[in-house]
Amino acid sequence: MLEPGEVLVEVELATVCGSDLHTVSGSRPGPCPGVLGHEQVGRVIAVGPEAPRCLDGAPVVPGSRVVWSVAASCLRCARCRAGMPQKCLHLRKYGHEAWDETRPLRGGFATHCVLWPGTAIAVVDESLPAEVAAPVSCATATVAAAVGAAGPIREGMRALVNGAGMLGLTAVAMLAASGAEVIAVDPHEHRRDQALRFGAAGAQPVGSPIGEVDVALELSGSSEAVQTCLDYLAVGGTAVLAGSVSPGPAVNLDPERLVRGLHRVVGVHNYHPDDLRTAVEFITTHHDRHPFADLVAGSHSLDDLDIAITAAHRGEAPRQAVRPRPLPFSGDGLLP
Predict the structure, then answer these.
(1) What class does this enzyme belong to in the EC scheme (predicted)?
(2) SS3 sequence, 23-78?
(3) pLDDT tens digit sequence for 272-310
């Protein structure tokens, strides 16, 4: 039975995120066994006592099509009270937790997922393609957090986006929609071409001169890319680092240049519930203006999850789709 504040969701579609690949490859520690997956869209099947509310204030009810945050927060600790629930002292993350026989459904690569209390939940429109909705739970919301951390984006600002993968292309679209002149940097020609389709004014290979920028977003995790973001900031510019989630070489930071340039360097990890709301609003309005659906390939069953992981490793598309085959649900329990 569902505990107070829990929600049972039938997974419609999940996508293979780069974080899943890092866990599978061993480049990032992860519990084993466990259920991976944290980018997904689904439909609410049942709600436990003390039903939570969606981000728009409406109660979570069976039948709602939803996306949910990558993490659940306690909402009571010092960090939560300080406005940083994404760094909760008791944070639990979908697709990152050790297997629990009493509550095994805590990841997106399953027929169903049980949402913890303290999870941000957002309703998504029925017309939104599942391939577009699923990445909102991680990629789109993370980009919303990064763009928000850069401060107000004004018409005519120059913005640099380092890395034109799933996050980078989304960032290009968000920044361009706010009126920025966006320059994308990526070593791969096909990704640079995609950036132009998502609204970039220019797309450059790594090492090309860029000129000063007002905003620089680093989404690749490359130390060289971090250095580029710092080196090209104009006076009053902001660098937002979101890709460096694994140890890497240090970069040079000239404190005099930072001081005299009035620069800001901001780190983004996980995201605030408000960022999930922003992400849903953005993708609902803009998904048909750019080829977001084309960024997700495949239609793998859970039995073929290894094939989806292999295809994602090969980089055949920014995301691979996993379509679970839902089992019959019994209202008397979590599983038949």
Answers:
(1) oxidoreductase
(2) HHHCCCCCCCCECCCCCEEEEEEEECCCCCECCCCCECCCCCEEEEEEEECCCCCH
(3) 999 999 999 999 999 999 999 999 999 999 999 999 999
